[in-house]
Amino acid sequence: MQKIVVIGEILVEIMADFPGEGFSEPMALTGPFPSGAPAIFADQAARLGQPVAIVSGVGVDDFGRLNTARLARDGVDISAVWVDPDRPTGTAFVRYRPDGGRVFVFNIRHSACGRIAVSDAVRAVLDGATHIHVMGSSLSSAEFIALNLDTAEAIRARGGTVSFDPNLRPEILDAPGMRAAMGRILALTDLFLPSGEELTLLTRSRDATGAIKELLAGGIRAIVHKRGAAGASYHDATGSLRAAPFAVREVDPTGAGDCFGATFTALWLRGTPPQEALDLAAAAGALAVTRRGPMEGVSDLPTLRAMLAQPRKEL
Ligand code: ATP
Ligand code: MG
């Protein structure tokens, strides 16, 4: 079986109990929940039985232990997760806006996962991977950009594959070098997993049809476009497919894209037909939003298959 590696942030997420515009007053919060886009991705992939490792760091604190215990329990290889004696585990505070948008306060760059120690354990994981999944949210420092790029290049050079989710957060888009790094990753990408307007973010074309053509012409083999409560679509050189959204009650949308992406990527690596992979990924995304906490809604394959019988919304 293919072995996936993800390089990036492990965080805890602490969420406001009630919607509002930000954090400028005391409020009720719930957490810590295990989080970080690469960690959610890895946890969901592991739940599907896919070999997957995360390269990241945590502090000597309960936030770190909460994460490593969860990842290990679900089958993620955490041998390349270092424990930083000087820095705390990363955090993300999130508050939903009344319009459904999100406000974040991040501590990533100055946390344990904000710098990299390429130890023998990290090297062993990187050298053993046959696929890398790159998260745009993880390209927030020069070190992380370089390690993701170098690993993607090395994996491609030995016949492996690359998937890429731009996973943009306006709060981190303007990090130095981030846009240029995204362009370089895109040039190495086999499977591209943008959400909403991310589809046209890195293309010259401003419209969806033009962007899809341009991306496929540029060497991307498959594009999966996530569209939240509107479902998802798949595009490759032979045509397009759609997955209607499942009818679920959305409790917490954070993590849906990562669960969706992990499911599609794991199935794509196994050669599952794209329509089946798309439907099961849409089931994973839909189940993810029904649970509070970004990593609480991960699913195993029997659960996803059972979900396929559930009602879908009209397209
Ligand atoms: P994230 O916040 O994790 O970055 P994202 O923007 O990358 O999310 P979304 O498009 O929100 O990803 O969600 C991924 C997929 O999950 C969607 O394409 C859809 O199939 C499914 N999904 C998400 N929200 C819902 C919902 N409310 N109802 C049904 N399905 C949903
Ligand atoms: Mg996303």
Automatic annotation (TrEMBL):
Per UniProt, the keywords (alphabetical) are: ATP-binding, Kinase, Nucleotide-binding, Transferase
Is-annotated flag, keyword Cytoplasm? Answer: no
Q: Which SUPFAM superfamilies match?
A: Ribokinase-like
**GO MF annotation, one:** ATP binding
Residue intervals of the Carbohydrate kinase PfkB domain: 1-297
Q: Which domain of life is it from?
A: Bacteria
Coiled-coil intervals, chain numbering: none
Asked if the keyword Lipoprotein belongs to this entry, the reply reads no
**Stated family:** Belongs to the carbohydrate kinase PfkB family.
The entry's protein name is Carbohydrate kinase PfkB domain-containing protein
Q: What organism does this protein naturally occur in?
A: Rhodovulum marinum
